[in-house]
């Protein structure tokens, strides 16, 4: 079974981005298993420590290296991704670079109507610079806005959004398999 690491860029207890990942984990459990990375406990990236990072960083990097693919669910803070997410990506971009060449599906949820459009633009720039392989964005961008109206009891419940998610996840699974066969 395909193994996916999910990186959630929000530390908030009732994070809609975590709820999205939990929805995906439950809805597609027949396609893949998800392991959620705990990025809130990572130390700040420090170049002085990159060659001998802490055990937390080593475990995190190994988790990503061992996965078939990565989901990144980001909130939008001040028109960009969160600092905790950027820090987590910094650790993945250095020395052994476990995210380089790894299939990644960016996504995000916000209370605003635009979803996380601006945050994901920045996220895609960073992912390109660290050589992650993303599903081409045209028609595959998961920008979930108006979150308060689309989530209930910890899960995404909006039928239109779930149908779109079904299409994108199906394309991503195919994309991952294609990348593995190269």
TrEMBL record:
Q: Which domain of life is it from?
A: Bacteria
Pfam family for this entry, one: FMN_red
Q: Which Gene3D superfamilies match?
A: 3.40.50.360
Q: Where is the NADPH-dependent FMN reductase-like domain?
A: 2-137
- InterPro entries from the xrefs? Flavoprotein-like_sf, FMN_Rdtase-like_dom, NAD(P)H-dep_reductase
The UniProt similarity line reads:
Belongs to the azoreductase type 2 family.
Report the PANTHER family cross-referenced here.
Answer: CHROMATE REDUCTASE (PTHR30543), NAD(P)H-DEPENDENT FMN REDUCTASE LOT6 (PTHR30543:SF21)
Its recorded name reads: NAD(P)H-dependent FMN reductase
Natural source organism: Sporosarcina psychrophila (Bacillus psychrophilus)
């Amino acid at each position: 079974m395909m193994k996916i690491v999910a990186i959630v860029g929000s530390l908030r207890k009732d994070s809609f981005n975590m709820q999205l990942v939990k929805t995906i984990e439950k809805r597609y459990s027949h396609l893949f298993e998800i392991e959620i990375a705990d990025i809130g406990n990572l130390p700040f990236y420090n170049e002085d420590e990159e060659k001998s990072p802490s055990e937390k960083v080593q475990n995190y990097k190994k988790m990503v290296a061992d996965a078939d693919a990565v989901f990144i669910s980001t909130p939008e803070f001040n028109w960009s991704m969160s600092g905790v997410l950027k820090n987590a990506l910094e650790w993945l971009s250095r020395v052994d670079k476990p995210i380089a060449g790894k299939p990644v599906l960016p996504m995000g949820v916000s209370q605003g109507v635009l979803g996380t459009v601006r945050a994901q633009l920045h996220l895609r720039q960073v992912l390109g610079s660290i050589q992650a392989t993303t599903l081409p964005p045209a028609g595959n961008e998961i920008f979930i806005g108006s979150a308060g109206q689309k989530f209930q009891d910890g899960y995404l419940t909006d039928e239109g959004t779930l149908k779109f998610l079904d299409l994108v996840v199906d394309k991503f699974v195919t994309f991952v398999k294609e990348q593995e066969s190269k």
